[in-house]
Amino acid sequence: AETLLRPIEGPTWGYRYRARLSVRHVHKKGVVLIGFHERKSRYVADMAVCPVLHPRVSAMLMPLRELIFGMDARETCPQIELAAGDEVIALVLRHLEPLSEDDLARLRAFGQQHGVQWWLQPKGPDTVHLLDEPVSADAPTLSYGLPEFGITMPFKPTDFTQVNPAINRVLVTRALRLLDARPHERVIDWFCGLGNFTLPIATSAGEVLGIEGSEALVARSRENLERNSAGRSRPLAPTQFAARNLFEMTPGQLVTDGTAQKWLVDPPREGAFALAKALADLHQQPDLRGGWLPPQRIVYVSCNPATLARDAGLLVHQAGYRCVAAGAVNMFPHTAHVESMAVFELADAGRPA
Q1: What are the two backbone dihedrals, phi and then psi, of residue 11, each rounded to the nearest 5 degrees?
Q2: What pTM was computed for the model?
Q3: Which positions are annotated as active-site residues?
Q4: pLDDT mean over 326-337
């Protein structure tokens, strides 16, 4: 990169708002263990506290162990998934058999005592549902805020959201500053999820298209757009969402999606190879473009530096871009994982503002 961005870092303890905790009844010890797996092992770590988890959840580990141990279904509840928002802590209990009325009553009592919202998962992720619907329409919902943009993002516990909400807020702010979307510009947000970047982009761009592979997340992003459009002093830009397999992108599909002056790309660990390859093909075969023009600037957010490096090679060596800036984001303190960000501009375009 021509410029190295200052690393983004934040709280190193109590940052983890998403987690998948294994549950195991250990007959020899007469206890239920709830925690992460030991390294490279099927054994569940004996965790009494976990300093990287949301503090309320860390303090809840031992009471959770007692709860599951006292349930009729303690042998058939293999997992508890955590999804915490700004106001609500949701726990998703995976259960392999129907829960008895006594067990449901135990879950309700625990939820009231510890202030958590129980969701049940009898089979696959699409079966996840609330144990009890909220008693009032104005009850707090599972959501997180991006206050700098006046955006609130409701989500379901099975939706993808970032593990670290404090870093996510800073990440979105920096990504949008680097993107520098203007009121006359169209922006495409690739791998948009539930709109984490899309809706903030819509506060400054002229038009936004969010594209995501999951139909469920596209539906959620449309709901979030409607919710965040109401009552704003300054309306959001015209915004649309579409579901598409982004691992099978072609030059023709890229042209069909239309010209956008800027892109934001935030793929999963597999990266955005097909998207970068389609862009490179259009650069090398101008006759395929028609009136389509490539984006002047791309901000690429990555959770896997290896696939970012691979895709950067395509963008720089085959698609006509310069890597003008890059930096690391410490989304996962105390681990070897790192989020990263890179900015690409067309080689014949000006440098970032």
Answers
A1: -55, 135
A2: 0.93
A3: 303
A4: 95
